[in-house]
């Protein structure tokens, strides 16, 4: 570690975060022990513990008694309601997947809720999200074309940690959002949705629409999700969070 005016624990925190984002530690896996990290960074265990606690507070890690520090997510919810679907599935011990249905731009026939948000050309990204190869969600994500120049299907991996659309938007296009508004409803699967989710027509499913906003309250994207199964809410810490796409 090089000398600087930055506190040692902050330097360790920044390096660990960099390693997390680079994929050195997979979601759901345990970090090296405090003793090992202490030797690696040549600092005290107190310094290591303080750096790890910062990552816990930020949502990247969870501390488990007897198990050490576990990688929880690479996309903490921060002040928004959105938690990565990819990360939650990995943490549950299952395999997430993403099948690209297509990217449309510009889209002319827009739903009313989209035109109410964006008065400019928009892009539509459609994917099927799977758990252990079984379709679980149909996602339709709308956002202004100017925010994602050059967007293509190659930007969206079909497997691994990088398939999270939240990380694609942040890491590939530098998008940021600080708040979100969500609407949940029960709907009946029509023919197109039923075919993609591999369920009978008229099956009751959940509709989940989440709009993300930037610091000036401008909409960044609208994520419309049709999903099988329940949504899990985490009320720990007094702030509800749930899975996003």
From TrEMBL:
Keyword Transcription regulation assigned: yes
- Give the superkingdom in one word: Bacteria
Concerning SUPFAM superfamilies, the annotation shows: Chorismate lyase-like, Winged helix' DNA-binding domain
Give the GO biological process terms. Answer: negative regulation of DNA-templated transcription
Query: What's an example of a GO molecular-function annotation for this chain?
Result: DNA binding
Recorded hits in PROSITE patterns, A to Z, give: HTH_GNTR
Q: Which ranges does the record mark as transmembrane?
A: none
The record's section on Gene3D superfamilies has: Chorismate lyase-like, Winged helix-like DNA-binding domain superfamily/Winged helix DNA-binding domain
Family matches, as CDD domains: WHTH_GntR
* Keywords from the UniProt entry: DNA-binding, Transcription, Transcription regulation
Q: Which residues form the HTH gntR-type domain?
A: 6-74
Q: Which SMART domains does this entry report, sorted A to Z? A: HTH_GNTR (SM00345), UTRA (SM00866)
Q: Which PANTHER family match?
A: MANNOSYL-D-GLYCERATE TRANSPORT/METABOLISM SYSTEM REPRESSOR MNGR-RELATED (PTHR44846), MANNOSYL-D-GLYCERATE TRANSPORT_METABOLISM SYSTEM REPRESSOR MNGR-RELATED (PTHR44846:SF1)
Query: What is this protein's name?
Result: GntR family transcriptional regulator
Species assigned in the record = Harenicola maris
Its taxonomic path starts at: Bacteria, Pseudomonadati, Pseudomonadota, Alphaproteobacteria, Rhodobacterales
């Amino acid at each position: 570690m090089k000398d600087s005016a930055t506190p040692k624990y902050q330097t360790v925190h920044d390096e660990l975060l960099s390693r997390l984002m680079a994929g050195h530690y997979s979601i759901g896996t345990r970090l090296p022990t405090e003793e090992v990290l202490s030797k690696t960074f040549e600092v005290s265990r107190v310094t290591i513990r303080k750096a790890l606690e910062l990552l816990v507070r930020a949502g990247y890690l969870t501390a488990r008694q007897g198990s050490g520090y576990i990688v929880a997510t690479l996309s903490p919810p921060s002040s928004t309601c959105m938690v990565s679907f990819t990360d939650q599935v990995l943490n549950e011990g299952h395999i997430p997947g993403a099948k690209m249905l297509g990217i449309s731009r510009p889209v002319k026939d827009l739903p009313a809720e989209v035109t109410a948000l964006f008065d400019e050309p928009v892009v539509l990204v459609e994917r099927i999200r799977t758990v252990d190869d079984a379709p679980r969600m149909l996602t339709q994500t709308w956002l202004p074309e100017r925010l994602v120049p050059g967007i293509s299907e190659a930007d969206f991996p079909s497997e691994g940690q990088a398939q999270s659309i939240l990380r694609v938007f942040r890491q590939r296009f530098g998008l940021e959002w600080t708040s979100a508004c969500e609407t949940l409803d029960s709907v009946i699967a029509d023919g197109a949705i039923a075919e993609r989710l591999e369920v009978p027509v008229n099956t009751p499913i959940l509709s989940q629409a989440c709009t993300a906003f930037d610091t000036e309250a401008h909409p960044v994207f609208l994520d419309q999700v049709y999903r099988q199964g329940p949504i899990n809410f985490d009320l720990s810490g007094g702030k509800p969070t749930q899975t996003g796409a």
